[in-house]
Every structure is written in structure tokens, then in C-alpha cells.
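Reminder to self: C-alpha cells first, then the designed residues, so the page reads top to bottom the way the pipeline ran.
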């Protein structure tokens, strides 16, 4: 009982207890495996104090494990266009969207062709942001949902339909991001792969049996004990247009299954995302989507995206 009580404080009660999780070892890649962890966008990985591979052999990308010049050159040679989708609904539009777009112009695949796709119920309120050469902004109208949970889950339906329109014609890779964050460092083509998942900064040190997967066996998002190696964040995910279709089809189907049975997964679309993401082709370290609440950590050298303060009472009423 004492152990359970201390665990509860650590996970949910006292934020300062969470700093202790940095003492939990992440593990390291076998040296023989590290030579195999390369692709056209990253080259060879070389960082020994953090986990740089998954059990199925996919690379986990940290600062210092790739050559940014190699990644940029490969993206230019392939003449790639990146699509970046973001939903700005309700008060989230005024609160976060302008800073998100401005910092994306500074840091997101700088010098590359980019199309921003902003989904909102108020297209006329989208701020004007100066865009560089080869970068465009598209605004798409979406319906306003009654509950914030429905806003979160409805985006999967929208993202599943989007590749059938101009997004599917214009972009080679599609990045899907939450609006309540901002770029703080270079976010480049080293992140590209057929299907990419983002390690959740709140859970990347946790053992798998502690990860907050859906455990209700009746839900389509349910994961059995021992299933799943990492917890992934729904605030950031991406891949090729074809891979995005497959991911969103899975999530839309799972959400519909649950709704028809009066169920709702604990973490909504993120629970279904984790059910799908058992074997992503590439995984990004928490540096690429970091929570400032944790403060500095030795393994977090250069955060690329930072969470904004969560003002749920103000924004979700």
C-alpha cells in the first residue's frame, strides 16, 4: 500500500516527484546494431548515453545522432514538399496559432517547400503571417464540436479525408501537430520517414508496464499487458501521404467502434494512435516535443518544439 501511495504521488500528485524519473535508465543500443540504424535523411547514429534504437530496429533520433546537412541535401535532391497540418478551433486560434506559425517559419524545415494547412471554424480570423519563398498557407473550414474531446477525436476524420483533396496532391510528407506549442529549434528533414512517432516527454523513462495505454478490453484501443514498448504523443505525428491514410483510417475506425458501444478511450485519439503505432519506421526523442515543466535534463540537449502552458479552464469552457 505504501508503494502504491508513493507511486500515485509520483505520477499524479506532486510534480517535483517527477524529476526523479530521470534516474530510471532508458537503456542503450547494442553497438552492433548502431551501424545498421541509418537512412538517407540521418546517416549513421552516434550517441551512446541514450537509447537510439527500438526493439524492432527502428532509429530513435536525438540531437547529435544525425548530420543536418545530409538531411537537407537529401530533401532538396528529392524536391520534397512538406505539409504541416494544425487545428485551431475555438479560443485556441487567438491564443496559439500566430506564434505557432511564426516560429514554424523560423525553424520548420527552413529553406524547404512547405504548405501549412490550418483547420478552423473561423477562417476569417486566421492571422496573416509573413511566409518565405516556396511556403504557402491553406485554410480549411471545419465544424465546431460541442466537447473538447470531440474536437480532438474529429481531427482524425478530417485528416483521413484531407489526402483526397489538395493536400494529397501538394505534399509528399504530412506533419500533424497540435497548435498549443511553438518551435524553439531547428526541425528539419532528419525527421522524415514513411511513418514517424514521437516519444511522449512525460513517459519516455517509464517501464512499459507503467505506460498509460487503454486497458478496457472492450475498447478498440485496448492494449494487453506486455503489449507496446513506448508511449507516443498525439501532439506530433507524421509520415507519407499513404501512411497517413492508413493511420487515420485505423483511428477513425477505432473511434467509431467505441462510440457505437458507448465507450471512450482514456486518452481519446491518442489511445488509438498508440494502438496503431506498434512498429513505426522512425521514432523521435522527446527533444522534438518537450515540456518546459521538467526544466533542464542532461539528455535533452536542444528542444525543437515546446509545449505552451495548458490553460484548460480558460480555453475549453
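Designed residues (317 positions):
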Amino acid at each position: 500500500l505504501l508503494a502504491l501511495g508513493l507511486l500515485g504521488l509520483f505520477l499524479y500528485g506532486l510534480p517535483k516527484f517527477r524529476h526523479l524519473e530521470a534516474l530510471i535508465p532508458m537503456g542503450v543500443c547494442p553497438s552492433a546494431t548502431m551501424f545498421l540504424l541509418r537512412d538517407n535523411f540521418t546517416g549513421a547514429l552516434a550517441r551512446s548515453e541514450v537509447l537510439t534504437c527500438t526493439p524492432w530496429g527502428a532509429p530513435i533520433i536525438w540531437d547529435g545522432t544525425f548530420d543536418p546537412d545530409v538531411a537537407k541535401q537529401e530533401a532538396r535532391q528529392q524536391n520534397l514538399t512538406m505539409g504541416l497540418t494544425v487545428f485551431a478551433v475555438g479560443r485556441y486560434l487567438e491564443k496559439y496559432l500566430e506564434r505557432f506559425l511564426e516560429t514554424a517559419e523560423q525553424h520548420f524545415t527552413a529553406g524547404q517547400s512547405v504548405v501549412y494547412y490550418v483547420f478552423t471554424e473561423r477562417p476569417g480570423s486566421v492571422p496573416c503571417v509573413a511566409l518565405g519563398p516556396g511556403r504557402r498557407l491553406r485554410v480549411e473550414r471545419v465544424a465546431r464540436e460541442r466537447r473538447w474531446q470531440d474536437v480532438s477525436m474529429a481531427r482524425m476524420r478530417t485528416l483521413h479525408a484531407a489526402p483526397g483533396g489538395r493536400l494529397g496532391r501538394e505534399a509528399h510528407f504530412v506533419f500533424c501537430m497540435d497548435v498549443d506549442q511553438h518551435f524553439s529549434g531547428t526541425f528539419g528533414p532528419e525527421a522524415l520517414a514513411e511513418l514517424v512517432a514521437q516519444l511522449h516527454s512525460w513517459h519516455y523513462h517509464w517501464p512499459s508496464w507503467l505506460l498509460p495505454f487503454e486497458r478496457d478490453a472492450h475498447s478498440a484501443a485496448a492494449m494487453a499487458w506486455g503489449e507496446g514498448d513506448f508511449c507516443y504523443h498525439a501532439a506530433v505525428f507524421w509520415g507519407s501521404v499513404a501512411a497517413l491514410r492508413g493511420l487515420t483510417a485505423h483511428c477513425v475506425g477505432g473511434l467509431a467502434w467505441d462510440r457505437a458501444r458507448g465507450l471512450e478511450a482514456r486518452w481519446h485519439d491518442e489511445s488509438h494512435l498508440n494502438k496503431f503505432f506498434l512498429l513505426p519506421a522512425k521514432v523521435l526523442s522527446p527533444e522534438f516535443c518537450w515540456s518546459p515543466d521538467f526544466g533542464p535534463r542532461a539528455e535533452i540537449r536542444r528542444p525543437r518544439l515546446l509545449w505552451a502552458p495548458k490553460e484548460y479552464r480558460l480555453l475549453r469552457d
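Strands lie at 60-61, 81-87, 113-120, 135-141, 173-177, 181-183, 195-199, 232-240, 282-284, 305-307.
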